[in-house]
Amino acid sequence: MGNGGLIHLGNVPLFIAAMVYGKKTGAIAGAFGMAFFDLISGWAAWAPFTFTIVGAMGFLASLISEKVPGKRVFVYTLAVAVALIIKIVGYYFVEVILYGNWIQPIGSIPGNVMQVVIAGIIVVPLAGRLKKRAGQI
């Protein structure tokens, strides 16, 4: 979408790892999982940026899920919203650097929003139940 970015469901396991298993797992799942995907799918130039951006998404989504009090559905939604901001801002500035243009990267924002929103719609209702199940194992 936009500048050739791709849309996938990789944010679903990222958010599950972050919300169910904690900061370290969320960061590792995001950083290594998504960077590895970039490496094997023809997007290798993006892997170092993905490692940093998506690792931060996983870490902060997990931190919010663990530390913010309140109804879990709202907390998980906040975690997804913060991850969305990290993704949009992070990839926007990487594209500005790579393409040398402040306007062109705006075209990638809708795809990034779509990926994270769809993942949030899938994961937010499941995260609490998955966390309970994981605690029973």
From TrEMBL:
The chain crosses the membrane at residues 43-61, 73-94, 106-127. Pfam families: ECF-ribofla_trS. InterPro entries: ECF_substrate-spec-like (IPR009825). GO terms for cellular component: membrane. The keyword Transmembrane helix applies. Gene3D superfamilies: 1.10.1760.20. The keyword Ubl conjugation does not apply. Keywords: Membrane, Transmembrane, Transmembrane helix. PANTHER family: UPF0397 PROTEIN BC_2624-RELATED, UPF0397 PROTEIN SPR0429. This is ECF transporter S component.
